[in-house]
Amino acid sequence: MNTSEIANEACRIGGKKALEFFQNRELLTIDLKGPQDYVSEADRLVEETIISHLKAVFPNDGFLGEESSEIHNFRQWVIDPIDGTTNFIRGLPYFCTTLALVENEKVVGGWIYDPTRDEMYEASLDGGAFCNGNKLAPLWRTSFATGLVGICHSSRLTADELSGRIIGALRRGAILRQPGAAALMLCDLASGRLDVLFDQHLKPWDSLAGLLIAHEAGAIASDYLANREWRSQPQITLASGPEIYQEVLELWPESRDVRLLER
């Protein structure tokens, strides 16, 4: 098996374990990390499972996980065992397991598994984006007036900041979506089900795999690694269809300085 196949397998194994926990979530112990920021033993055990699977094949690789301490190396796996933990613990079937591979400060592979739908999204740098082996060929809307716009938010945003962003999009005629798992929303964008996604404060395990998948599907996508402190400082995550991107710049000034992944 090559690296991509092993990563696919690790992500799928982790996702299936997450699904087992989801189906028995009433037995889980839930902790609060911060305002509306939950974690369960499922998050920790799924992450341990993925790391163990990868370490068995790549013992010298580094790891950066949401629930574990960092092991740094020039080649590093970035893991979110359950993106959409709040959905997960509340019984909403919109969550996923994400895995990205960073080599020499460049994202070279991304895998996102949606266990409730048994859908594996994956991409490699300059290799295209796929869902369950089928190449993604999205068709995006060309304006906010006809588009579906994903707006994530966190406790770092004030109510006024968030409402200003929402009102601006609504005034242009957009319909908004915030289903609560940014990585899966990026897969929706890569598949043409969303036309824009924007968040100012996502962590690397939320964003890296999905941004690469969106980019390889043909979307405009932000370069999360442009800031050298990306491991410790949340960065802007932006993705959109190419034609609607100019309207994003007009509507949200904070998007104008965002460095993009190159083609």
Question: Any overview of this molecule?
Answer:
This protein is of the alpha+beta class and 263 residues long. The protein has helices spanning 3-23, 41-57, 85-90, 159-171, 182-190, 204-216, 245-251, and strands at residues 30-34, 37-40, 62-65, 75-83, 96-103, 106-114, 119-124, 129-131, 134-135, 148-151, 175-177, 196-202, 220-221, 235-240. It is built from 7 helices and 14 strands. The protein has a 7-stranded mixed β-sheet with strand order 3-4-5-6-7-8-9, sandwiched between helices. Helix 4 links the parallel strand 10 (148-151) and strand 11. The two termini are 28 Å apart.
Specify the overall morphology.
Answer: globular
| Integer-rounded radius of gyration | 17 Å
Order of SSEs: HEEHEEHEEEEEEHEHEHEEH
Within the largest sheet, what's the order of strands?
A: 3-4-5-6-7-8-9
Beta-strand portion reads 25-35%
Q: In percent, how helical is the residue content?
A: 25-40%
Total count of helical runs of at least 4 residues: 7
At CATH level 3, the topology of the largest domain is Fructose-1,6-Bisphosphatase, Chain A, domain 1
Largest sheet: 7 strands, mixed
Strand segment tally: 14
What is the average of the pLDDT values? 92
Low-confidence stretches: none
Domain count: the total is 2
Give the name of the CATH architecture of the largest domain: 2-Layer Sandwich
Class per helix and strand makeup? alpha+beta
- How far the N terminus sits from the C terminus, by CA atoms, comes to 28 Å
> What's the name of the CATH homologous superfamily of the largest domain?
Fructose-1,6-Bisphosphatase, subunit A, domain 1
Q: CATH class of the largest domain, please?
A: Alpha Beta
